[in-house]
């Protein structure tokens, strides 16, 4: 199985990216039929706060993973990046659950802030979140299908650098969006 996946990393990356984006756009677009997901009491109301904490933790683990690989500590790098991936998966699962049940949150602040700060920040956050998905999948698939000694000879280092930067900025902007929606306004 690993050998077959190894030969098809770009195709698998594309397939996983399309599936992931379809799930997100389907949930945001209200395509999840009512009644499919159970409405768990207070969970929906705390998800934005939990997701902000998950984003902060992901920033920490990604940063630690980058620092670890710069020190040639592959074991810690792998552990940190897999943790970041798990944090992101949990974030996404909670986000899709909440958005499917409640829809998007309306901005409650001043119109000037909405137009000139919130919307541009949200747009860049969404764009970077979408752009990082194939890079993250590609780096993960390369790491999962190649030995540690082979990885430097693959596109893993390049894809990983791009993924880390996009991921970090997207998570940071996501926290800024959260602060505007749930704390400041």
Task: Offer a quick outline of the entry.
With 185 residues, this protein is mainly α. Helix content is 79%, strand content 0%. The protein is built from six helices and no strands.
Question: How helix-rich are the residues, as a percent range?
Answer: over 70%
Structural domain tally: 1
What structural class do you assign from the helix and strand content?
mainly alpha
CATH architecture designation: Up-down Bundle
Radius of gyration: 18 Å
Q: What is the N-to-C order of secondary-structure elements (H for helix, E for strand)?
A: HHHHHH
**Proportion of β residues?**
under 5%
CATH class label: Mainly Alpha
So, the CATH homologous superfamily?
A: Cytochrome c oxidase, subunit III, four-helix bundle
CATH fold assignment: Four Helix Bundle (Hemerythrin (Met), subunit A)
Q: Which regions have little confidence, pLDDT < 50, spanning 5+ residues?
A: none
Protein name: DUF420 domain-containing protein
Keywords: Membrane, Transmembrane, Transmembrane helix
Pfam families: DUF420 (PF04238)
Organism: Halovenus carboxidivorans
């Amino acid at each position: 199985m690993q050998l077959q996946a190894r030969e098809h990393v770009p195709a698998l990356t594309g397939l996983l990216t399309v599936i992931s984006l379809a799930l997100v756009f389907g949930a945001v677009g209200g395509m999840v039929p009512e009644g499919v997901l159970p409405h768990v009491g207070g969970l929906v109301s705390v998800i934005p706060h939990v997701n902000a904490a998950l984003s902060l933790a992901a920033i920490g683990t990604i940063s630690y993973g980058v620092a670890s690989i710069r020190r040639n500590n592959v074991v810690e790098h792998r552990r940190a990046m897999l943790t970041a991936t798990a944090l992101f998966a949990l974030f996404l699962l909670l986000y899709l659950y909440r958005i499917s049940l409640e829809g998007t949150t309306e901005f409650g602040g001043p119109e000037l802030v909405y137009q000139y700060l919130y919307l541009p920040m949200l747009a860049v956050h969404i764009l970077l979140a979408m752009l990082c998905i194939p890079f993250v999948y590609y780096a993960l698939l390369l790491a999962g299908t190649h030995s540690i000694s082979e990885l430097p000879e693959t596109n893993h280092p390049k894809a990983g650098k791009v993924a880390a930067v996009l991921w970090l900025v997207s998570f940071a902007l996501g926290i800024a969006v959260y602060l505007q929606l749930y704390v400041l306004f």
